[in-house]
Design brief:
alpha/beta; 2 domains; 17% strand; 286 residues; binds adenosine-5'-diphosphate; 6-stranded parallel beta sheet; 12 helices; Rossmann fold; two-stranded antiparallel sheet
Length: 286
């Protein structure tokens, strides 16, 4: 599968040699990713693309946002570049930088510039985590101008007509700390992702892991039960991703309770009493 996920974790030695961003080409997703539609999200995406409007996908972690974007890139037959944003992701990482090559200094496009030039889908995963200068950099790309200003080159480039900006944002995460400003949010169409209903989540688990329907049902029931346990005060609750992981472990032969413990319970809490309570509850259900 030709698909790059560029994770811009700061790596000083790589940064120094300009090797951090393999941005020469955007990549195509050769094999159709499995994605089960939960609302009319692909229609919304298609129309956003057609109308050259940027799209913000809101929702908790593990609800299928990234999978959906990969699926849409394949559906639209467009290249996809994903950037996992974090507090050190800067506009230079996205736009590009001068690097030393032999005796020369050469310009190297960053992934945003590549996507703008080549007409790829650019997915900024967890955009609220990035530094504010990123928001400034994408400003003129999110309105009718659809252009990118590269200050280090003193150049403005018009976006390829197939360029599309997609960003994800987890509104519940670090509440009040890393919110997106209303003025930024209003530059995007926005769609909300929630956990799928039980029927769909069972189908996803079966498809992703090959697990039988009976066990998939039990895992989904555990997930739903824990999601309703607000009194435990968990920072994040059971995502579809965690349930898929548990299903994969069960399918590969790990005992069911142990699978739920390591894939669902332990990732949710470090508190011994909470872990015990969740294991007791899950143990009764599987
Ligand atoms: P997010 O980007 O929201 O954190 P992901 O897209 O990485 O979440 O989804 C996590 C996992 O959950 C996927 O790898 C996939 O196994 C599963 N998943 C969640 N929702 C769906 C869906 N609607 N269709 C198919 N798989 C899904």
């Amino acid at each position: 599968m030709l698909f790059i996920k560029i994770n811009l974790r700061p790596n000083r030695s790589l940064q120094r040699f300009g090797l951090l961003i393999p941005s020469k080409t955007a990549f195509m997703i050769a094999i159709a990713p499995y994605y089960l539609e939960t609302q009319k999200e692909s229609e919304v995406f298609q129309h956003a693309f057609k109308n050259k409007l940027p799209l913000l996908i809101k929702g908790p972690t593990g609800t299928g946002k990234s999978r959906f974007v990969a699926y849409m890139a394949h559906e639209l037959d467009k290249a996809l570049i994903t950037i996992s944003c974090h507090e050190e992701t800067s506009s230079t990482d996205l736009i590009g930088r001068f690097i030393i090559k032999g005796a020369e200094t050469v310009w190297q496009d960053g992934p945003l510039t590549t996507a703008v030039k080549e007409g790829a889908l650019l997915y900024l995963d967890e955009v609220a985590e990035a530094r504010p200068d990123i928001i400034v950099a994408i400003h003129s790309l999110t309105d009718h101008r659809r252009e990118l200003f590269i200050d280090k080159l003193g150049l403005t480039i018009k976006a390829h007509e197939d360029f599309m900006l997609v960003a994800s944002f987890n509104p519940g995460y670090q509440k009040g700390f890393k919110e997106l400003k209303p003025s930024t949010r209003q530059r995007f169409l926005a769609i909300s992702f929630e956990y799928p209903d039980a029927k769909k989540e069972i189908e996803i688990l079966m498809n992703e892991s090959g697990i039988n329907k009976d066990d998939a049902k039990k895992l989904v029931a555990i997930g739903q039960k824990i999601r309703n346990l607000t009194e435990l005060g968990l920072a994040e609750t059971v995502s579809t991703r965690l349930l898929v992981d548990a299903a994969k472990l069960i399918e590969s032969g790990l005992p069911k309770r142990l699978s739920v413990n390591v894939a669902v319970v332990q990732p949710l809490s470090d508190d011994a009493d909470t872990i015990q309570a969740l294991n007791d509850l899950a143990g009764l259900m599987i």
